[in-house]
Give the backbone structure.
Amino acid sequence: MSDSAEAAPEAHPQRWQRDAWDIEPDSINLALQSLSPRTTGVIIREAFYGTRRFDDFERHCGISPSVLSARLRDLVADGILEKTRYRAPGARGRDEYRLTDKGRSLVPILIALNDWAEHWLVPPDGSTVTLLHRDCGSPVRTGVTCTSGHEITTPSQVSAVPGPGARPASASG
Amino acid sequence: MSDSAEAAPEAHPQRWQRDAWDIEPDSINLALQSLSPRTTGVIIREAFYGTRRFDDFERHCGISPSVLSARLRDLVADGILEKTRYRAPGARGRDEYRLTDKGRSLVPILIALNDWAEHWLVPPDGSTVTLLHRDCGSPVRTGVTCTSGHEITTPSQVSAVPGPGARPASASG
DNA sequence: CGGCATCCTTAGGGATACTG
DNA sequence: CAGTATCCCTAAGGATGCCG
């Protein structure tokens, strides 16, 4: 970092021309980027389940402390988690990582992931966790609708309208 | 590969004890796993937008052919895409990669990702693509409800009920 | 042109040990 | 216990070149 002289071009024998994230800066890619290092998604899921302390993340997520530290820092920088000093009376202060509003609004994504996996990945018997509405006890699910209330079930029901710099693509078969 | 003798234990100086995927085999992690190599998500997004041909994936996703080939193979193996021989009259046969039912049912996840990014990542001005209901033209959104119809907006509305081998965690603040 | 294999670079992540 | 730095290995991806 911060070397002033960039003289020799052969000093960098290879420089990446392409990067999958750069090509199409559309929203879905941006979101994927935010969840992108594998462990980030795992941590968010864990936070969603209520975990807040470093130690618990480490234990439950199975992420080594060095990586966990880095990921948490990134998530805080991204505004998905916030780090707060929590001080129990008489005890030493502890840091807690809690979801921000931005982080909490990932819920639909997490539920959608859960739905999909429940349906396609663990169909036989071994469902691990069931997500229920706390107040009424009914299972929680995502649904896709347009703002007029029509249900969407397949990509072909959706058309992508070109914002500023978008492609015209629309639907698969 | 395929050396029969596995004699020396020191031949493997290091063996990973932990893996973030293994610790908690819950549905959300399983789903994350399915989207996990960065480029997989990008490809799925692209398929969702209607892309089918190897060349187009390469161009639109900015993924080098070798990797693209591997990811497509994995996605086919996972049953998310299916490879079909498409033969235009008089032309050479082409392979097409199309979403299966399993792949198509990822829609809620993609829409949820899109929603979230639109709201938190590209708020100012530069929205790239808008997703509309093809029939009525209204924008498409995800919603989370329980099967009794109540809206869910925050993790604290959700409780995780222990399936077979689950943890009791439930909600964040 | 569609698709795959090889070679190499980067970045992601585990273990360990150390600091506040 | 919370968090970080170091060291090293593996996973993931780009470029290139070859085969159908």
User: Anything to note?
Assistant: Strands of chain B lie at 81-86, 94-99, 129-133, 140-146, 151-152, 158-162.
